[in-house]
Design a protein that fits this description.
binds adenosine-5'-tetraphosphate, Tyrosyl-Transfer RNA Synthetase, mainly alpha, Rossmann fold
Amino acid sequence: MKKRLFSGIQPSGDVHIGNYLGAIKNWVRMIEQYECIFCIVDYHAITIEYEPKEMQRRILNAAAVNIAAGLDPNRCIIFVQSHVAEHTELAWILNTITPMGHLERMTQFKDKAKQHRENINAGLFTYPVLQAADILLYKGKAVPIGEDQVQHIELAREIARKFNMRYGETFPEPQEVLSEAPRIMGLDGKTKMSKSLGNYISLVETPESIWKKLSTAVTDENRKRRTDPGNPEICNLFTLHKHFSKKEQIDRINVVCRSAEIGCIECKKILSENIVEALTHIRCKYEQLIKNSDQLSDILHAGAKKCKDIANSTMAEVKKKMGLV
Ligand code: AQP
């Protein structure tokens, strides 16, 4: 029996290279080894202001981008969170064993509360409990994520432990799996690359747009003039080179940036070409997939059907153990 893997992505905007390097690339890599369930977590995305008319398009986009990036629906399950009502049912139950103090410590809540002062809702606060329910509903053991989600997985483990102690052994404790790029910074070089901050390169960005965004991206801020030597170790774009450029190019840039033989524009051009090369096949596949929304809906509904069976069985076990029969 393969171990089960669960992970999710919010349909809160354009899927970007931070999501890809931090999570999706690992998802694709792990498909063979695990029984994989990938979820488009729309109930999470509604915890911040959004346009209802836009949501369906965002969900289909997230599905198309992820499939184009390598989540073959014949080899894994991909579905939408709100299509399986048991996620919120289990979340309610888990709410009753999650201490408020633990939720108050969550850095994502603190960051999002600062970012959305006008809408600090209870859903934003209990977001990690729903996330724990997402994983535990399927008894997921491996959870490939970016660094920003590690604290939430630690909490999911604590919740699983607490449930097991109180009601009897039910849930395995989920383990996070980090990629070699667990935190990609945005093009501003200051904050995490995020859909909602607009500081990203999307996975399906056109070559022109990739260049436009990179041309204004922040590099080593100590390098004021073309003739100043650069410091690759503090340049955010050098980090991106490490993920998109060939070893010989990275080694050369590491030398010629320091000696000011190369300027930031030339360095950005090399990076732009390499990102375009790495993403073109994803964009082409995405463009085919997004034209056929019926086919995408069929994939998502078939995924939800399979998940529903697993979710029903977990909920029956949970309710029985809790005396809710
Ligand atoms: N910058 C990042 N570097 C590495 N990994 C990242 N992830 C997100 N940003 C980075 C990982 O991508 C997966 C899906 O993310 P998500 O959609 O669940 O939500 P998020 O972490 O809140 O991502 P965003 O892009 O920052 O969205 P918004 O702006 O809507 O909040 C997760 O595994 C995440 O760790």
